[in-house]
Specification:
The structure holds 2 protein chains of 2 kinds. By secondary structure, chain A is an all-alpha fold. Chain A is built from 4 helices and no strands. Chain A has 2 domains: about 1-35; about 60-115. Chain A is flat. The two termini of chain B are about 20 Å apart. A two-stranded antiparallel sheet of chain B has the order 1-2. Chain B is built from 21 helices and 2 strands. Chain B has helices at about 5-25, 30-50, 65-90, 95-110, 115-135, 140-175, 180-185, 190-205, 215-220, 225-230, 235-250, 265-285, 290-310, 315-345, 360, 365-375, 385-395, 400-425, 440-460, 460-475, 490-495; strands spanning about 55, 60-65. Chain B has one domain. In chain B, helix 9 (about 215-220) packs across helix 10 (about 225-230). In chain B, about 65% of the residues lie in helices and about 0% in strands. The chains are: A mainly alpha, B mainly alpha. The interface of A and B includes residues 108 and 116 of A.
Chain lengths: ~120, ~525
């Protein structure tokens, strides 16, 4: 019992020291050897990718969320459709009907949203 | 098998049709309302005509006389909310509001007909989510948005409590079926106690019992009045019904006792403490309200307390009384909210001042208001009196609960004051100039009908009490075996009289205590129901 915990403690110590060594080496290298040459690219938050423009705290249109909600419904629908499709030939007619009812409910939701003008980006 | 869900299926189909009407003919309110009501009546007919009682999908769906009765009551309350909404809801998204009322009603009806923890949770969410939306439905009003947000946040946190509690109960007893949970006879487990307490906390949010009542005043005040009527009536009936079913059918052997000097740990003392706090806080806080909807909210908290007193006495007679009283309370409060909705339409607000001189400007409405508020206060010829009388006598079937009943009766006397304040504004104060009667014929008729019902149930409580007692006392029809091969559940007998606790604890349990020799004995079971193997 005690030796188990001893082993764990040793592991913990190694786990703390192990990442600290390269970090300390990198820090020491930067302090002692590397020349300081700050530049626009080096100072940017992300060195790769597209440069960010404007403040990040902007308001999204609420339409965005409605789109996301509707997308999510049909995204999750595929999770149900995939196993249904894979086992299609072995399923009874009632399972087919049940899934069609399920799809009908989702489609009615989409039609309703469309008719309400939610899909038009204003 | 799925035929047992026919009423709910009809309602969902009706809601989908209404949604379709909302996008094809959004202007014709009458057509949309008619379609909604038609769906409701078809569902009611289906409840009557459904052939067999039974237990389907291992107790997920249970159809027995008591469930049918409460499904009808809930459906009636849902349609009442539809009528109120048809007179007061705004033009935009009108059909959607009615469809949401139907969806919520479906949830409540499912709640009345199940004995499985999973189904209970799903039905509870199906009830609540449309109600959150309905509470926030008045987009022009800040207080409606506040009501919706508060109701949603507190409701979803309480749902988390409830789910955690139910999961602990499942974890200890190994089943989500209430009958199976009742058969569990292990030692009292701390985990199970935690589960019961969390479950009670979740339901206390739903029925707005202290200390989980904070949402109620803001929601009742801010939500559109038709939505508040549904929250106060239908959702209360469904919540109390399913709480009673969980406690008696599932957790009956862990009741404990809240009696004075006979304290035994269990759910009964927890309920008794919440009941005492609700009765005191609800009635005293209502004294200083200046908005009638807010006043009704505190009155609802107090009435939740009265109902919990009945439940905490944990005797069979008191359960009949609780179910009887919750129906009466729901009818009365739905009517009161309907009257408030009409006044709001006339005068643009629901403050006490807005009721000034109502007896002059619209005498019939004022008379209805009188009936509802006097009934809520519990004055004799009206239904509220008999409901409270039965409730308190039945609670005294456990005589050591006298302290709680005395507290409730004393606080009920306090409540008379604030109900009479409203009536004073309506009957004594002069009416302001230039009040025109509101054009809300359907709501007006319905409010009058509800007032007549409250009066009739007060003069002849047997109309409701006898069928209720008969359904509770009668076993299910023979041969109602479900197609799944599950043994038949003996209907309402199981609900109330399911089983005596298997261990020695029943000797101390109030379930075994001698009942008060009143007429409630007639409703109690004469012999224990057959065990389901």
């Amino acid at each position: 019992m005690n030796s188990d915990y001893l082993l764990l403690t040793i592991f913990l110590a190694i786990a703390i020291v192990f990442p600290l060594i390269p970090l300390a080496m990198a820090w020491a290298w930067a302090r002692l050897f590397s020349p300081a040459k700050p530049g626009k690219d080096k100072q940017s938050s992300y060195e790769c990718g597209i440069e960010s423009t404007g403040p990040a705290h902007v308001q999204f249109q609420s339409h965005y969320y409605l789109y996301a909600l509707i997308f999510l419904v049909f995204d999750v629908e595929t999770v149900f459709l995939m196993p249904f499709a894979a086992a299609f030939l072995k399923l009874p007619v009632s399972a087919f009907l049940a899934l069609m009812v399920f799809l009908l409910l989702l489609v009615e939701g989409l039609v309703w949203a469309w008719a309400k003008g939610i899909l038009a980006w204003k | 098998m799925l035929i047992a869900l026919l009423p709910e299926t009809i309602l969902v189909a009706a809601a989908l049709v209404v949604l379709g009407l909302g996008v094809s003919v959004p202007k014709s309110r009458a057509l949309i309302t008619a379609a909604t009501l038609l769906g409701g009546f078809a569902a009611a007919a289906a409840i009557f005509l459904l052939p067999s009682d039974g237990n389907f999908l291992h107790g997920m769906v249970v159809l027995e006389p008591l469930a049918r009765m409460f499904k009808l009551v809930i459906l009636g309350l849902g349609l009442t909310a539809v009528v109120f909404a048809s007179d007061s809801f705004p033009e935009t998204h009108f059909a959607e509001s009615l469809a949401l009322v139907l969806f919520s009603t479906v949830g409540m009806m499912l709640l009345a007909g199940t004995e499985d923890l999973l189904m209970i949770f799903i039905a509870l969410e199906l009830t609540s989510i449309p109600l959150y939306i309905l509470a926030a439905f008045d987009k022009q009003s800040r207080s409606s948005a506040e009501a919706g947000l508060k109701y949603f946040l507190i409701g979803s946190v309480s749902a988390a409590f409830l789910l955690y509690g139910l999961s602990l109960i499942y974890g200890v007893t190994g089943s989500t079926n209430l009958q199976a949970i009742a058969r569990f006879s292990g030692a009292p487990d701390p985990l199970l106690i935690a589960g019961i307490v969390l479950t009670l906390a979740g339901f206390a949010f739903k029925v707005a019992a202290v200390p989980f009542q904070l949402w109620a005043p803001d929601v009742y005040e801010g939500a559109p009045t038709a939505a508040a009527a549904l929250i106060a009536s239908g959702s209360k009936v469904a919540g109390i019904f399913i709480l009673a079913r969980i406690l008696t059918a599932g957790l009956g052997s862990w009741a404990g006792s809240a009696g004075w000097g006979q304290f035994l740990p269990g759910w009964a003392p927890v309920l008794a403490l919440m009941a005492a706090a609700s009765v005191v806080l609800g009635n005293i806080a209502a004294l200083v309200q200046s908005n009638v909807k807010r006043l009704l909210a505190y009155s609802a908290i107090a009435h939740g307390g009265y109902l919990l007193i009945g439940l905490s006495s944990a005797s069979r007679g008191s359960l009949t009384a609780v179910l009887f009283y919750v129906v009466i309370y729901a009818l009365t409060t739905a009517g009161a909210f309907g009257a408030v909705a009409i006044v709001e339409k006339q005068r643009g607000g629901s403050r006490l001042d807005d009721f000034d001189g109502l007896a002059k400007s619209s005498p019939v409405l004022a008379l209805c208001l009188l009936v509802f508020f006097i009934s809520l206060a519990g004055i004799p010829p009206l239904a509220g009196f008999f409901g409270k009388f039965y409730l308190f006598t039945a609670a005294l079937g456990n005589p050591s609960l006298l302290w709680l009943v005395i507290l409730a009766v004393a606080m009920n006397a306090v409540s008379l004051y604030y109900y009479l304040i409203v009536l004073k504004h309506a009957f004594v104060f002069p009416a302001p100039e230039g009040i025109r009667p509101a054009n809300a014929p359907a709501s007006g008729f319905l409010v009058a009908a509800l007032a007549l019902a409250v009066l009739a149930l007060g003069l002849a409580p047997d109309i409701l009490l006898t069928p209720l007692a008969n359904t509770i006392a009668s076993p299910a029809r023979p041969g109602a075996t479900a197609s799944t091969g599950v043994p038949p559940v003996s209907g309402a007998r199981h609900f109330l009289c399911g089983r005596q606790p298997p261990n020695g604890r029943d000797a101390r349990s109030p379930l075994a205590a001698p009942r008060h020799p009143n007429d409630f004995d007639a409703f109690a079971c004469r012999k224990p129901a057959a065990e389901t193997p």
